[in-house]
Design a protein that fits this description.
Layout (H helix, E strand, L loop, with lengths): L6 H12 L5 E6 L5 H14 L3 E6 L10 H7 L11 H10 L10 H16 L4 E6 L6 H11 L7 E8 L13 E3 L5 H11 L5 H11 L3 H12 L6 H8 L6 H14 L3 H13 L6 E2 L11 E2 L5 H5 L3 E3 L6 E3 L2 H10 L2 H14 L4 H11 L5 H16 L3 H13 L4 H17 L3 H10 L9 H15 L3 H17 L6 H17 L2 H14 L5 H11 L1 H4 L3 H9 L7 H13 L7 H14 L2 H18 L2 H18 L2 H17 L3 H15 L5 H18 L2 H11 L11 H4 L1 H10 L3 H13 L7 H14 L3 H12 L8 H18 L2 H18 L2 H13 L8 H5 L3 H11 L4 H8 L3 H15 L7 H6 L8
Parallel strand pairs: 1-4, 1-5, 2-3, 3-4, 6-7
Antiparallel strand pairs: 8-9
Helix pairs in contact: 1-2, 3-6, 4-5, 5-6, 8-9, 8-10, 11-14, 12-14, 12-15, 15-16, 16-17, 17-18, 18-19, 19-20, 19-21, 20-21, 21-22, 21-23, 22-23, 22-24, 23-24, 23-25, 25-28, 27-28, 28-29, 28-30, 29-30, 30-31, 30-32, 31-32, 32-33, 32-34, 33-34, 34-35, 35-37, 37-38, 37-39, 38-39, 39-40, 39-41, ...
Length: 923
């Protein structure tokens, strides 16, 4: 029978299906408005057009099970996985529990899903239809969004139906939408006439009033009200409730009366199906063990419910399915607590081979403390954490604590839940959990100290009181004699190390190191490694690089916070690139459903590695992303840290205004709090910005604020990183003795043995300050020939520029070009505007006229090239705007983007940059 009042929506869906290019579309509307009917219409059109159609449905009972929805969606295609490459097969094995390996990121899994869909669509076009998308688990919804945004040009299409009254991941998936509104009065009346032509006037008027244009209500109310008509209008109205009651609740009342009329056995069968998501996707026969996250119970002998209009039979499979999600909700609500628990126990037995699904049912089935069930929930939480489901892990650990027999087990599990919640950026929830776990009469515990210290550190940057608080808690644990495997002690120690790192204070670090020494064998090897590398790599980091590199090969399957701690150690040793592929592989997963705090640290580390290897555009995008996340989650410490890294990047690029603004913002927040880690970053950004502008006196003052010349201040981690900054600033301000003294201090401290970057900086500093040409050439050769020199292009270019200047004065102009040309080209590729201009000036001094980069020029849009030409001709922004119909501010914004592309910093340099684009290289 044709739908009434949906001609426009049907036409749009038909056009969606028949267009050649693949795409996605979200149908959004209230409960019962007809989304499912429209999805069915689209599926029918697709089948007529030769599509293969796969249908799936989100179910509330599975909304906490990672990848359950994805398994349901892909279940008909899983046989094709064997035809994919080994990497894609491993991805699906990890996600669906067929292999114990590291879960992939959204991007990695999304690409594998796209490959599988493309393989299936090679046989015939494919339409994926998802109903009730609001109930899809977050992990699956993220994959659907990723895939949906990348279907253009493929033979695959995606249709999703979601309810407007329930928030879901599809709200922010950035997919095209088709709103589905209620029927207008005329269409509502026409639908009622079409389906119920003999309906009495009284009931007809009441139905139209109550339904308010909702098709489901228009179809369900007449049959329900017909038997009450003889009792008069008040009786009719009492059956459906007043208009103030939400429509879903009024409809549930209608289904409730039908459910109540069923036999006890039928209601029990419906309850089993409702609690396990029956009737949508991959199913189980009764008694069959689970076979993946999408396996569901299969109802049987349910003809009675079909006759009552509660179930329907799926034509393709013959399975029973709920006629509408509201039927499922009504079944659950009408069951008694004991009935629901009995159904959950039976389902837990059916799913005994699937840990997480079994845990979900056991959590709901168990009332009294049960250590066996608590152990299962704890194991499920560990599994979820490693698969990127930290939020689900918090819920399972909390429930495990509630079911613990002993108070010690309860406190431990709540502490674990609080720990995971803290890393999932749920700091307030973490604190509440540990307070809930305190013993009667207790006012404090090690776990509560852990949670409150996390909150104080990350939200307000408090390193002074948190250091005292955590150190005292560690001392108390030491005095009570913890075992070697005491997890809370290890967590407290690692937090103390993080607090000490952010403090960047010698006294705080010495207190920390003394406390760790007192703990002896109670400290894990990992914690000792973190203490050595996070504190002062010059004094404690020698020999750690090999251990870190060995650990990098074994990070798969580890908790996300352990990965980030190892990666932080790798950063201090300048071997972070070893970890970056793994960080890239899991960061999206953690940001979406897992350890968000760890995910933000991962983004910081990725940004730092991007800056080190010269991927500055990518670093800026990463920095802005993590800044937005930190602000969103209230992690002001991470937000300020993001601003500090962005200040450093802006300083490198010669963007002096933004660099100084960000530097001032960081300094104003961090200095009063004693956050030496951040104030050193601010000073480093100040020194870099000043060097980029040629303001060497200011650069020197910033550099010696970090460490005096001739020494490397203990526990000041920027002291070694700013080695070249201090040396160059000292040389250019006539402080040659201080420059030489600092270079020799780096040599004497054996910095080349600590990390590859420090080796490059040390050799470069010694070359710059050498007393004779033989030493200068020797040290420069060591720098340039270092096997990792190319990994640090900015530092290598600085060393080449300085050596080229020296060679020009000693050996002549032609000899200098060998060093100045690659330096200028490197600065230009990086977008280091101030350094590019300085290198070009030195090249001109050798008689070579450097040409503007054709690559950078080609990156200008037509509009940018036109603005650059007009500005080079001498026109003002106002005059350019008048010619091009732009505002002066818009012209200024374009020029702000043009200058870095051309490797210049001033308007006066535009003419030379553009006029040299066609010239060949000078010899």
């Amino acid at each position: 029978m044709a739908m009434v009042g949906r001609e426009a929506e049907q036409a749009e869906l038909a056009a969606f299906v028949k267009t050649a290019a693949g795409q996605a579309l979200v149908l959004r509307g209230e409960t019962g408005v007809g989304k499912s009917s429209l999805l069915g219409h689209a599926a029918a059109v697709a089948e007529q057009e030769g599509y293969a159609v796969i249908r799936a449905s989100g179910v509330e009972a599975e909304s906490e099970l990672p990848y359950a929805g994805l398994h349901q969606f892909l279940h008909p295609l899983l046989a094709d996985v064997a035809d994919l490459d080994d990497g894609s097969q491993e991805v699906f094995d990890a996600v669906f529990g067929r292999a114990d390996s590291d879960p992939p990121s959204v991007m990695t899994l999304g690409i594998a899903v796209l490959s599988l869909l493309s393989l299936a669509a090679a046989r015939k076009p494919l339409l994926l239809v998802l109903d009730d998308g609001q109930w899809l688990d977050d992990s699956s919804a993220d994959i659907c969004g990723f895939v949906g945004r990348r279907l253009a040009g493929s033979p695959v299409k995606l249709l999703v139906g979601v309810r407007t009254d329930i928030a879901s991941r599809f709200d922010t998936a950035a997919l095209p939408e088709l709103p589905i509104a209620a029927l207008n009065d005329q269409d509502a009346a026409a639908l009622l006439t079409q389906r119920f032509p003999t309906l009495g006037k009284q009931i007809r008027r009441l139905v139209l009033t109550q339904a308010q244009g909702n098709p489901l209500a228009l179809l369900e109310l007449p049959a329900h009200l017909g038997g009450a008509a003889i009792q008069g209008e008040p009786a009719l109205e009492s059956l459906v409730g007043d208009l103030g009651m939400p429509l879903p609740r009024r409809l549930q009342r209608l289904y409730g009366s039908r459910i109540a009329a069923l036999s006890d056995a039928m209601r029990a069968e419906l309850l089993m199906g409702a609690l396990d998501g029956a009737g949508a996707g991959a199913r189980l026969s009764r008694g069959e063990a689970g076979s993946g996250p999408g396996a569901r119970y299969r109802m049987r002998d349910a003809d009675e419910a079909v006759a009552a209009g509660l179930l329907e039979i799926e034509p393709a499979t013959g399975d029973f399915a709920f006629r509408h999600p509201l039927v499922r909700s009504a079944v659950v609500q009408m069951a008694t607590p004991n009935q629901r628990r009995a159904a959950h126990r039976a389902l837990a037995q059916i799913h005994r081979e699937h840990l997480e699904r079994r845990a979900t049912h056991l959590a709901a089935a168990t009332v009294d403390p049960d250590e066996e069930v608590a152990d299962i929930l704890e194991a499920a939480a560990e599994s979820a954490t490693k698969r990127g489901g930290a939020l689900a892990a918090v819920a399972w650990l909390t429930r495990a604590a509630e079911l613990s027999v002993e108070h010690t087990s309860r406190s431990r599990r709540l502490a674990d839940a609080a720990f995971v919640a803290g890393h999932a950026a749920r700091l307030g929830q973490a604190h509440r959990l540990v307070q809930y776990g305190l013993a009667p009469g207790s006012t404090d515990s090690a776990a509560s100290v852990l949670a409150s210290a996390y909150q104080a550190l990350y939200q307000d940057g408090d390193v002074l009181s948190t250091h005292r608080q955590v150190a005292l808690a560690i001392q108390k644990l030491r005095d009570t004699g913890p075992t070697e495997a005491d997890e809370v002690l290890t967590r407290l120690v690692n937090l103390l190390l993080a607090i000490s790192q952010y403090a960047g204070d010698r006294a705080a670090w010495e207190r920390t190191q003394a406390l760790l020494a007192d703990l002896g064998d109670l400290i894990t090897e990992r914690s000792r490694l973190y203490g050595d590398t996070w504190s002062d790599v010059i004094r404690h980091g020698a020999g750690s690089a090999e251990v870190i590199e060995q650990a990098a090969a074994k990070v798969a399957g580890q908790e996300p916070w352990e990965v980030t701690r190892l990666a932080v150690a790798a950063y201090h040793l300048d071997i972070l690139s070893r970890f970056r592929p793994h960080l890239r592989g899991i960061v999206d997963r953690e940001l979406e459903t897992g350890a968000v705090a760890s995910g933000m640290v991962m983004l910081h580390l990725i940004m730092l590695d991007q800056m080190a290897v010269g991927e500055w555009d990518g670093a800026q995008d990463t920095g802005r992303r993590v800044l937005a996340l930190a602000v969103e989650h209230g992690h002001e410490l991470f937000a300020t840290q993001s601003r500090a890294y962005l200040a450093q990047l802006a300083a490198l690029r010669g963007q002096l205004g933004p660099a100084r603004d960000l530097q001032a913002e960081v300094d104003a927040w961090a200095r009063p709090r004693g956050l030496g880690f951040l104030t050193q970053l601010a000073d480093s950004a100040g020194a870099t910005a000043a060097l980029s502008a040629g303001d060497y006196e200011t650069a020197y003052l910033y550099a010696i604020g970090i460490t005096p010349p001739g020494e490397f201040r203990p526990y000041a981690y920027q002291a070694s990183r700013t080695l070249l900054d201090l040396v160059e600033a000292a040389r250019h301000t006539g402080r040659t003795e201080q420059a030489r003294q600092h270079a020799l201090a780096a040599r004497d401290a054996d910095l080349p043995k600590i990390s590859p970057r420090l080796a490059l900086l040390t050799y470069g500093a010694l070359a710059m300050t050498a007393d004779g040409e033989h030493e200068a050439a020797e040290m420069f050769a060591l720098a340039e020939a270092h096997p990792d020199a190319a990994r640090f292009p900015f530092e290598l270019a600085r060393i080449r520029l300085a050596h080229g200047i020296r060679v020009r004065h000693v050996e002549g102009r032609a000899a200098a070009r060998r060093y100045l040309v690659p330096a200028a080209e490197a600065f230009e590729r990086l977008g280091a505007a101030g350094w590019t201009e300085r290198a070009r000036a030195e090249l001109r001094a050798t008689g070579a006229v450097p040409r503007a980069s054709m690559l950078n020029l080609a990156s200008l849009t037509w509009q940018e090239r036109r603005i650059a030409d007009l500005a080079a001709s001498g026109l003002t922004n106002k005059e350019i705007g008048k010619r091009m119909h732009l505002s002066p501010r818009t012209v200024s914004s374009h020029l702000y983007r043009i200058f870095p592309k051309l490797g210049i910093t001033t308007r006066a340099a535009l003419r030379d940059a553009l006029s040299r684009t066609e010239e060949g290289p000078q010899s």
